[in-house]
Give the backbone structure.
Amino acid sequence: MPPLRKMPPQIIRLVLLTIGIVCVYFTARYFLTPPSFGQYGHYRGKALQEIAAREPYWAGRNTCDTCHGEIVQKLAKAEHKELSCETCHGVSKAHVENPEVKLPKLSYSLCVRCHEASPSRPKWLHQINVRNHYTGSVCTECHVPHQPNEVP
Amino acid sequence: MSENITRRSVLKNLAGIVGGILAAPAGGACKAAVKNVFASSPAPPGYDPTQHKWLMALDVNRCIGCGMCVQACIEENNVPESHYRTWIERYIITKPKAGSGQVRGETIVDSPEGGRKGFPEALVPKQDILKSFFVPKLCNLCENSPCTQVCPVGATFDAPDGAVLVDKNYCIGCGFCVQACPYGCRFFNPETHTADKCTLCYHRITRGLKPACVEICPSQARIFGDLKNPAPEDPLQRFIANNRVEALKRYLGTGPRVAYAGLDEEVR
C-alpha cells in the first residue's frame, strides 16, 4: 500500500469529505434523537407514558362498590349481574368527586335500547316488542332493574 | 473569485463549522430544548410494558347491538364527531331466491353512526332475513401491523404489551397508515391533525382498569385480559378455551390477534 502522502489527492479529498459527512450525521443524530428513543424499539419509549398519562373517564364498577357495596352485591346475584353500574347510570365521575351531585334519572329508552326485539339480536336475550308489550313509559312499574326476576 | 473559493477552503470551513457545533455550549441548550418538547406528563408509576401482553376477544353471539361500547369509547377518548375507534356492524344475510340452489342470498352490512345510538329497524323485511347478527370491530392488534410498517417517521409502533399506538408528537399526519390498515381501524383526527386509532384505552389498562368498551358492554361480548398474567379464572383464558376462535382477514398475513368467536364467513 502506498503511503498516505502518495495517495492521489482526489482520493484523499473524497475520504475527508466522507468522514465529514459521517461526522455531521452523527452530530445531528446526537442532538435530534429524543432521549428515550430505542428504549423498547424503534420509537420513543416516553410516548407510551404520554399516551397513558390521560385520566380515565369511566370510573368502573369497583369504584361504585366502595360506597354502594350493598347494591352491587344484590346486583351480582341477579340477571343483570354482568352489567357495569355506569352502563345504565352513566358516567359517575362528578358523583364520585362530590356525592351531592346526583346521577341523571333513567328513562325507559335505556331498557328498550337493549331489549327491543330485533332479528339481528341473539336468541338468548330477553326481547320485547315495546308497542305490544306496554304502552306506558315507566318500565319500573313492573320490573326491578337491579333484580329483573323480582316483581316490585 | 473562483480562485479564492477552492474545494480545499470549502472543506476547511465545513470542518470548522462541524467542530464549532460540537464545541459550542449552545449544543447543550439545544439538547435540553429537545428534551423539553418531549417531556412527559406523569404516567401511572410502576407499569412495565414488557411484563404484559393484552388481548381483546369478541363474542359475536353475545353482541346485542346496543352500541353502548361505541358511545363509551367516544366519551372516554374524546373521539371527534363521525369518527370511530370501535364500531358495530350489522350483517343481514337474506334468504336465497327460491330454486337458485344457493346457500345464502345477499349480504347487507350497515353501521349507522358506528352504531353509537343503537340500530334502527332493518330495511329488509323480517321474513326475507336468513340470519342477522352484530359484529363489533376495533383495532386487530396485528403482530406484523402494516400501519406501523408504512409510517415514514416511526410515529406509530407496536408496544411490547401488544397495543399498537400513535406517538402524536411525531406523527406528521401523512395518512399512509390510515390507508394501510386493511381493517379500516385508523382515521385522521381533524382536531389534532394526526392519525388516531384504538389505543386499547392505554391510559386505563396501565392503571388496572378495563378498556371503556369492555367496562360498559352489558352482555359480555367483549372480553379483555392479560396473556402474561392471567387472573384466577381469567375470563379471556376461559373464552379462548371454550370457543372456536378466529381472527379477521388472517390470509393477509398481518397477524391479527383480536380473537372472534361465532364469525360467519361473510364477515370481512
